[in-house]
Design a protein that fits this description.
Helix content: over 70%
Strand content: under 5%
Number of helices: 19
Oligomer: single chain
């Protein structure tokens, strides 16, 4: 599908700051996704809510993030990526303020829903980078932007734990509101509006259909353990999602300006990349979910270390730092050997990380080492995925396509959350007068997550071959940039 331009782009007087600003925005948004995890066990006492209601503080961000990421990506392609980026950051700030001023569980859930909707910032930032930067800077900049999803998640847990230990819990929401406001000001000052547009009319029926499909599917996945996997509510949601998905797909194939271009999405290069994104999201999230809980288990379990909430959060910090350091390395691997090779390497590294975790579950430092290896693989994978997407889709569909890829990572994380909850709830024993997961429960999660990483490797190996190396590769990269430049000049 050809792209169209509504207005010529003006060069930014702060061009060198565009990538740092966009990466900072992505990191703030990613931190919001995990900010409440250390708070969850305390929410019933702090708000008077039931444990089930407290769980919605995480579930709702998965739902709104899944729905709004592809939708706002498409809106950005059509009406202006910077404009939609600013709106997303405004929603994030508003959601943070709501959470900061109230202890009512309904208000908190509403605020968290707004925070989750801002996840679209990451694919929008990737698309702006593709449109605005010279060819030689695109790959390393996109690698950093994509990695912020994992970096922010790794940093958010220890930061939230420190706040919980030393300040009133509302403080972390006030801090997130302040960061959201800083993001807004920086984008207004630094980031130019991309002139690249995708023509067509907004697909409202397709958007509503996708919303219903995702809400039904993710509700069944994330709440199935509480409701019962064979309950009428869970099975009904799965069945309704399948039926709605078939109807939605038929409509999208027939409309002239679809919400999701299924013909493009069905190309092996796009489809297999999205499958790999789902599996990588699953493998990454297991590392985040179980590390803190495992080291906090009491020593009476025989494997737990009885660590504090702060120590458990800090276990993931080296992984976050490794992701920052490895994002440019991943870009070099993609440039030299192709993003397909980088993604395959990342899948292997993640699988090796879970092998390390499987055999080193009694030592804090070895647990941290294993978690860092998994995070290192995640950094390489998250950097390679958008590069694979962008070489397979038209320039005018970059934000929407990366939004769909980010959505698949979120679906993978939701599936992981459900699997982890089910395993830890069913493989238990009594230790020190309390019920706790067995060591075998954690080891089984490591096996499942490692298997997901290997499945991502299989999907990656079936991707079309990487682009040629050397002169032909450089010419191919320049061609992408040239297409954007030509579109600007024709406006």
């Amino acid at each position: 599908m050809p792209s169209a331009i509504s207005a010529p782009g003006r060069p930014s007087p702060h061009a060198r700051l565009v990538v740092p600003v966009l990466a900072f925005c992505g990191m703030v948004v990613a931190v919001m996704q995990t900010l409440v995890v250390p708070l969850l066990p305390h929410v019933p006492a702090l708000t008077g809510a039931s444990p089930g209601a407290a769980g919605w503080l995480v579930t709702i961000t998965l739902l709104t993030g899944a729905v709004f990421t592809p939708v706002l990506g498409r809106v950005g392609d059509m009406y202006g990526k910077r404009r939609v980026l600013l709106a997303s950051l405004g929603v994030l700030t508003a959601g943070s303020v709501l959470c900061a001023v109230s202890s009512d569980i309904g208000v908190l859930i509403t605020g968290r829903a707004l925070q989750g909707a801002a996840l679209a910032v990451i694919p929008l930032g990737i698309s702006i980078i593709r449109d605005e930067l010279p060819a030689e800077r695109v790959l390393p900049s996109i690698a950093l932007m994509s990695s912020t999803l994992g970096i922010g998640a790794a940093i958010g847990l220890p930061v939230a734990a420190v706040v919980m230990e030393n300040f009133d819990w509302h403080t972390m929401f006030w801090a997130s509101a302040a960061l959201g406001l800083v993001d807004l000001l920086l984008v207004l000052r630094i980031v130019p509006e991309s002139p690249v547009r995708s023509p067509g009319r907004f697909d409202l029926p397709g958007t509503l259909g996708l919303t219903g499909l995702l809400v039904g599917l993710l509700l069944a996945i994330t709440r199935g353990a509480d409701w019962g996997w064979t309950s009428g509510r869970t099975l009904g949601l799965f069945g309704a999602s399948v039926l709605l998905g078939l109807l939605w797909g038929r409509y999208e194939l027939r409309t002239r300006s679809p919400m999701v271009d299924l013909r493009v999405s069905a190309r092996p290069a796009v489809l297999l990349t999205n499958v790999a994104a789902l599996l990588i999201g699953f493998a990454f999230y297991a590392n985040s979910l179980v590390t803190g809980q495992m080291v906090q288990e009491p020593t009476s379990t025989g494997y737990g270390l009885g660590a504090s909430i702060v120590v458990s959060g800090l276990c993931l910090l080296p992984g976050g730092l490794a992701m920052v350091a490895l994002s440019p390395v991943s870009a070099r691997i993609s440039a030299a050997y192709g993003p397909r090779t980088a993604l395959a390497l990342a899948s292997v590294v993640m699988a090796v990380g879970y092998v390390v975790r499987f055999y080193t579950s009694h030592s804090l430092w070895l647990i941290v080492a294993g978690a860092t290896v998994v995070s290192s693989g995640t950094a390489i994978a998250y950097s390679a995925l958008p590069a694979l997407v962008m070489r397979a889709v038209p320039v005018g569909e970059t934000a929407a396509a990366n939004g769909l890829n980010t959505l698949m990572r979120s679906v993978g994380q939701a599936c992981c959350s459900a699997v982890v909850a089910a395993v830890l709830a069913h493989l238990t024993f009594t230790a020190g007068g309390r019920t706790a997961p067995t060591l075998h429960a954690y080891l089984l999660i490591f096996l499942i997550a490692g298997g997901a990483a290997l499945a991502a490797l299989v999907a990656t190996l079936f991707l079309p071959s990487d682009r040629p190396r050397g002169r032909e590769a450089r010419e191919g990269t320049v061609a992408v940039s040239a297409s954007v430049t030509a579109a600007r000049e024709s406006a």
